[in-house]
Each structure stands twice: as structure tokens, then as C-alpha cells.
Design brief:
With 140 residues, the chain is an alpha+beta fold. The chain has a single domain (3-128), classed as Cytidine Deaminase, domain 2 (3-Layer(aba) Sandwich). The chain contains 4 helices and 5 strands, in the order αββαβαββα. The protein has helices at 3-20, 60-70, 93-101, 126-129, and strands at residues 33-38, 43-47, 76-82, 106-110, 121-125. The protein has a 5-stranded mixed β-sheet. Strand 1 (33-38) and strand 2 (43-47) form a beta hairpin. The protein is globular and about 45 Å long. The protein binds tetrahydrodeoxyuridine (THU). Tetrahydrodeoxyuridine is lined by residues 25, 28, 30, 32, 48, 50, 57, 59-61, 91-92, 95.
């Protein structure tokens, strides 16, 4: 990976780490941040927002997607997701389906803490996370 490619990605992951600070997760205490890169370079961030009525809670990835779509963006290049765990955590099933809706094909799952300013991550494709998926083309 080239140096400039690494920079945009590290910046995207850093934004996911920043918004993780805003997570509202008094029940799980499991903070999640996401940063969604749209095709024009705009970044939409999101955190998990839990609720005393547990099922009402929303994941970080879907917060970011809803923010972007409600601002008029539907084309994306990538998403970065981060938790507080020093291991790879991948998006839940509901979020995978939301990523599928908008063909968000590159999913960077970062470890919690940067090493010398660089976040470690694993890249997953949508196809890896949600093979044989259901999508809008069946309905449109
Ligand atoms: N969570 C996310 O934000 N994204 C995921 O993909 C997995 C789970 C949140 C939901 C809940 O607030 C907390 O993590 C524990 O499940």
C-alpha cells in the first residue's frame, strides 16, 4: 500500500476513534465508532446510541449510514469501524445488511489503539462478511 493511501485510511480510522468518544452505551459499555467515506471525499461519522429499551439502540455503522443518506449521499468508498478491543471486531448482521444496501465494499476493522500513530486494521470485503446476500435488485 502506498504512503498516501495509508494516510487517508489512517485519517479515516482516526475519525472513527474520535467519534467513539461520543458513544452512548451505558448498558453494554461497549463503545463503537464508525467513519464512512463517501465518493466525493466527505466523511460521515457515527457512534452506537443505546436505549433503556434495549432493542431501540442503534449501532455506530448504521448511525453513520443514516447521517450520510439523510444528507443526500448514497455512494461510498469505504467504512472504518473501531471498538475498545485490541482485536478485530467485525460489524453485526444488521449492519452488514445496511452496508450491503449501499454497496459499501471495503470495511476496515481497526484495533483500539494506534501504534506510533498508525492504527492496525483488517480489511474485509462485503462479499466476505455477507455472502449470497439479499439486495435491492430483487425488489427494484
Ligand atoms: N455495536 C455496534 O455499534 N456495531 C456493531 O457492528 C456491533 C455492535 C454496538 C451495539 C451495542 O450498542 C454495543 O455495540 C454492544 O452490542
Amino acid at each position: 500500500m502506498s504512503e498516501s493511501e495509508n494516510d487517508w485510511l489512517n485519517n479515516l480510522i482516526r475519525k472513527s476513534a474520535e467519534v467513539r468518544e461520543n458513544a452512548h452505551c451505558p448498558y453494554s459499555k461497549f463503545r463503537v465508532g464508525a467513519a464512512l467515506l463517501s465518493d466525493d471525499g466527505t466523511v460521515y461519522t457515527g457512534c452506537n446510541v443505546e436505549n433503556a429499551c434495549y432493542p431501540v439502540g442503534v449501532c455506530a455503522e448504521r448511525t453513520a449510514i443514516c447521517k450520510a443518506v439523510s444528507e443526500g449521499h448514497k455512494k461510498f468508498k469505504a467504512i472504518a469501524v473501531i471498538t475498545d478491543r485490541e482485536e478485530t471486531v467485525t460489524p453485526c448482521g444488521l449492519c452488514r445488511q445496511s452496508l450491503r444496501e449501499f454497496q459499501i465494499k471495503s470495511i476496515y476493522c481497526a484495533k483500539a489503539t494506534p501504534v506510533n500513530g498508525k492504527y492496525e486494521y483488517r480489511l474485509f470485503t462485503l462479499e466476505e462478511l455477507l455472502p449470497h446476500s439479499f439486495g435491492p435488485e430483487y425488489l427494484l
